[in-house]
Design brief:
Number of domains: 1
Shape: globular
Structural class: alpha+beta
Radius of gyration: 10 Å
């Protein structure tokens, strides 16, 4: 499963899990744009454990 991860300034982890990578990328981009990249950035963790940065997600959209 692919995951959208965010760790906020308080160290709290938020996770969204979906089998579809495109859904995770869209959600990370939506959340990053909505929040203006403040108080943490959403990244996508792929099934194999590799992570896509916010810039990677934006480029993949």
């Amino acid at each position: 499963m692919n995951k959208v991860l965010r760790i906020n300034l308080h160290g709290e982890l938020q996770v969204l899990i979906d089998a579809d990578l495109a859904v995770c990328i869209r959600e990370a981009n939506r959340l990053n744009a909505e929040r203006g990249y403040t108080n943490g950035v959403h990244v996508v963790e792929l099934r194999d454990g590799q992570r896509m940065t916010a810039a990677d997600c934006k480029a993949a959209a």
